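Subgroup meeting minutes
Present: P.N., E.W., G.H.
Scribe: E.W.

1. P.N. recapped why we're keeping a running log of single-chain structure predictions: easier to compare across weeks, and new members can see raw inputs and outputs side by side.
2. G.H. added today's entry (265 aa).
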Amino acid sequence: MTQAAPPPLPDAPGRGTDPAALDRLWRILRICLDVLMAGLWLFVVVRADGPVVWAWAGVFAVVYAAGRFRADEYGPGLPTWPWLAAVSLAFGGLAWATPDAAFLVFPLFFVVMHVATGWAAVALVVALTAGTMLGMAHHGVMGVGAVIGPVLGASVAIVVGVGFRLLLHEALQRERAITELVAARADVADMSRRAGELDERARLAADIHDTVAQGLSSIQLLLHSVERSLADDGGAATDAGGAAPDGTSGAGAAGKPRPDHRAFE
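Output recorded in log:
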């Protein structure tokens, strides 16, 4: 009998994260960052008070767009760290030219955590935070807000970026495990099907063997019966052929003297 394939695994809604949903969220986050960066950059340009600020703002916009507009799925189109270094230098020049550059650092934190990973990304966020505070100190803008603002923004960006990376990693691991499980279940189902086919073939072979053996046994019994019948018929024919017409046996008839016909001549 063919063995049944193992039943499918029940779905577990609410457990794990769909990588496709995370990918869509990742893309939406990237678009929101670009829109926020463009809006804040325009705000800085409008408030600029000289050509130096405009020049640094232009350099920052060109370098930023060079990487973001050629971005691939999970990072800039240009090599990641050279692009991040160029963006950071352009931001540093803009922060040295105007304190309003501090408005750009918050989305820049998320951009760094978006395209980079590991402790290097965290170190770059910390460096941007320090550069922002130095730029504000250079312009004489110091206070609790000038310190708490960049530090708080950097902390939020690091927590969100690391958490999102961990969530994405967990989702990819889960998807890989599900793929391997599906492949293993397919192998088990194939092995079960083959085992069922082998069992069915063995059963058919046994049935055929039993049928043939039974037929041969019947033929052998019939042959023995025919042989016995032929032997009995042969013995009866021999006895009937050797008897005399008067009922005496052939030997007795041969022992009686024959009448002499010459006496009647």
